[in-house]
Amino acid sequence: MYLVTFRLDPGDYDEEFHELNDAIQEAAEGTEGYLGKRTWHDPESEEVLVAYYWESLDALETFGAYSEHKEAKRRWTEWYDAYEVTVTEVIESYGSGFGDDADPPA
């Protein structure tokens, strides 16, 4: 499994952003190998961290080829003050106490 973390410092979102963001999420969910996502907001810094779970790098590359995703990457300065993407391979995941949400989407 692969984990893609998208850390962002939000700027101003307009209607066009929300339409594109919805299209990107729909594209992700329609990509074979997409396992899900989780989102965290830091109330002090207003930064957002979104963790996307992917079955394989092939699935991630398929998603990356969608035109909506490419458009958003080109236009990031319109909506974000900063961003960072990290792609990691998950070797192991474990824990206790979070119920059904403890495990990454499978």
Automatic annotation (TrEMBL):
One of its GO terms (molecular function) is monooxygenase activity. Its EC number is 1.14.-.-. It is an enzyme of class 1 (oxidoreductase). Signal peptide: none annotated. InterPro entries: ABM_dom, Dimeric_a/b-barrel, Monooxy_af470. Gene3D superfamilies: 3.30.70.100. This is Antibiotic biosynthesis monooxygenase family protein. Residues 1-90 form the ABM domain. Keywords: Monooxygenase, Oxidoreductase. PROSITE patterns: ABM (PS51725). It comes from Halolamina salina.
